[in-house]
Amino acid sequence: ASAPSRRKPTGSLLRRLLQRRYLHRARPEPVHCLAAPIYTTQVDVTQPMMTDVFDTEKRSAVMRAVKSRDTAPELKVRRSAHALGLRFRLGRSDLAGSPDLVFPSRRVALFVHGCFWHGHDCARGARMPLTNRAYWQAKIAGNMARDAASLAGLRKLGWKRAVIWECETKDAVRLARLITKRVGILTQA
Question: What is this structure's pTM?
């Protein structure tokens, strides 16, 4: 009887398996038999599967650096609104949801939402992290519920509400048109 073929996984095979997320912290260890050693892969199941490129402390620092105000999309919207001749207030805490930009003379509250954090249906907003998926789904669903409550609260107070998404701030001309449309500017020819 012939012995089953014993194929030794090479470094490139292990890399391919790891890239496909079939293995976690793979370490080839020889298992000695009567014939040549057979290489197997040890998987440490006690450790959580991490696809992160940073260690825990660095990831914590990166997440702390995520800002809630003065973000790049918000600054683009501010510059564009100012260029259109609009004057606004920033983050009025007396209004529901503390809108990013408030146009008091028009009674318009404008929110600038990040696509990922507020669950937009664009490509960036639809992408969910692979690790700790339940946490992120609950987090984003909570953000969306809070956004809906804020918009409803502003409506009760008689304010017009507008939302500009991060993906809509990429093109400056389109952004100016959106602000004009959502804030309600009467253009003069």
Answer: 0.65
Q: What is the pLDDT of residues 149-183, one digit of tens each?
A: 999 999 999 999 999 999 999 999 999 999 999 88
Per-residue three-class SS string for the chain: CCCCCCCCCCHHHHHHHHHCCCCCCCEEEEECCCCCCEEEEECCCCCCCCCCCCCHHHHHHHHHCCCCCCCHHHHHHHHHHHHCCCCCEECCCCCCCCCCEEECCCCEEEEEECCCCCCCCCHHHHCCCCCCHHHHHHHHHHHHHHHHHHHHHHHHCCCEEEEEEHHHHCCHHHHHHHHHHHHCCCCCC
Residue type, 65: A
Does residue 179 contact residue 86 with C-beta atoms inside 8 Å? yes
Do 97 and 87 form a contact (C-beta atoms < 8 A)? no
Sheet holding 89-90, edge to edge: 89-90, 101-103, 108-113, 160-165
CA distance 91 to 93: 6
